[in-house]
């Protein structure tokens, strides 16, 4: 079951993810929940939704719990493990080399989502085909994770299109 995030009702969405995770340990759902919590903490999201302080604190606490639990509860090359590293890189400047990102995409042939970050980090030079496959998959999803991945890939493509027009 895919969790669709269209509402700005953060409290209801947090409760929904908690219920879903209580019923099953689905790594894709855990990754969705991590990215949802992470993105609700983004200053732009907070301002746009006028997110209450208590919900901000709840999202922050939930994200902290999810990040801390990944190594104990998830496979080492899983989506939650990738997103833990990615979020720590984005928010805390933790090292997350392109090679490490590539390894996530190579380790499990069924999980190529990390290609979006390799594609972005390399200026569109590496893992392009895989990133386009990921982008196509995101088009069918309305999760905040899919929206984030889609925005990163599409931003890179817009930069390329602009550069091509400027030549």
Descriptive report:
The chain has 167 residues and is an all-alpha fold. It has 2 domains: 1-95, no CATH class; 97-167, no CATH class. The chain has 9 helices and no strands. Helix 2 (27-40) packs antiparallel against helix 4 and helix 2 crosses helix 9. The mean pLDDT is 92.
Entry summary:
This protein is mainly α and 167 residues long. The chain is built from 9 helices and no strands. The chain has helices at 10-23, 27-40, 43-49, 53-73, 79-92, 98-107, 115-121, 128-139, 144-166.
Beta strand count: 0
Coarse shape: globular
- Rounded mean pLDDT is 92
User: Could you state the order of secondary-structure elements as H and E?
Assistant: HHHHHHHHH
Which radius of gyration do the C-alpha atoms yield? 16 Å
Helix-and-strand structural type:
mainly alpha
Q: How large is the share of residues in beta strands?
A: under 5%
Through-space gap between termini: 46 Å
Number of helices: 9
Work out the helicity level: over 70%
Architecture blueprint of SSEs:
Layout: H1 10-23, H2 27-40, H3 43-49, H4 53-73, H5 79-92, H6 98-107, H7 115-121, H8 128-139, H9 144-166
Index terms:
mainly alpha, 2 domains, 73% helix, single chain, globular, 167 residues, 0% strand, 9 helices
